[in-house]
Amino acid sequence: MVQTQFSVKVQVLRSDNGGEYVNHQFREYFQQHGIIHETSCPQTPQQNDIVERKNRHVLETARALLVGAHAPTRFWADAVTTAVHLLNRMPSKVLDFQTPLQALSGYIAVPAILMLPPRVFGQPEHISLATEHHEDDHEAHVTSPSTIPENPTPENDPEVSSFNTNILAPPIGYVLPNRHNRGKPPSRYSPDIEGRRSRYPIANYVSTKKLNEPLKTFVHNISGCHVPTRVEEALGDPKWTQAIKDEMEALMKNKTWNLLPLPEGKKIVGCKWVFSIKHKADGSIERYKARLVAKGYTQTYGIDYQDTFSPVAKLNTVRVLISLATNLNWPLHQFDVKNAFLHGGLEEEVYMDIPPGYSVTTRTNEVCKLQRALYGLKQSPQAWFGRFSLAMKKYGFQQSNADHTLFLKKQQGKVTALIVYVDDMVITGDDIEEISRL
Question: Which keywords does this Swiss-Prot/TrEMBL entry list (predicted)?
Answer without folding.
Answer: Hydrolase, Metal-binding
